[in-house]
Design brief:
Shape: elongated
Low-confidence stretches: 18-36
Mean pLDDT: 81
Structural class: mainly alpha
Helix content: 55-70%
Radius of gyration: 14 Å
Distance between the termini: 35 Å
Strand content: under 5%
Number of helices: 5
Strand order of the largest sheet: 1-2
Number of strands: 2
């Protein structure tokens, strides 16, 4: 079932943004993550400037950041609910994507691994994998803000 969700997300993401995407060479095997996911990203700045993201993407990632912060602040432990809440935000981002060109391609470098981590939160039964997925999501959100602006 997990593979079907990932396939559906990829299809929606690629077709909803109305631009061509480039394949990335990130080795993000969800079953064998022992290093930080950020080590596998190949993001680059736009001639030493941040990429411009559309407002809805920025709002969605900002809400994801707030959801993660609230989860950690309140010492919650239901990772499945966290995954569901974050999944709603990624669906919002995908649905409202209007980015094109290189900025869009660079967004995919961050967003696709987010979808993988969210799937782990929602579906995996291993508590340690869920904790690592949350940690990786925090790093991915932080990376988004480092490389993108409105």
């Amino acid at each position: 079932m997990n593979k079907y969700y990932i396939i559906i997300y990829f299809l929606i993401l690629f077709f909803s943004c109305n631009s061509e995407t480039k394949k990335t060479n990130s080795n993000l095997d969800a079953e064998v993550k022992t290093i930080s996911i950020i080590d596998t990203l190949s993001l680059k700045l736009n001639v030493n400037e941040k990429w411009i993201a559309n407002l809805e993407t920025h709002q969605g990632v900002s809400k994801m950041d707030a959801i993660i912060s609230a989860f950690k602040t309140n010492s919650k432990t239901d990772y499945k609910i966290l995954g569901e809440d974050l999944s709603k935000q990624t669906s919002f981002i995908i649905k409202h994507c209007s980015m094109k060109g290189e900025s869009h391609d660079q967004l995919h470098v961050v967003l696709l691994p987010m979808l993988d981590e969210i799937s782990i939160l929602r579906e995996d039964t291993n508590h340690e994998k869920k904790k690592l997925a949350l940690h990786n999501l925090e790093l991915l959100v932080s990376t988004y803000f480092k490389f993108f602006k409105v």
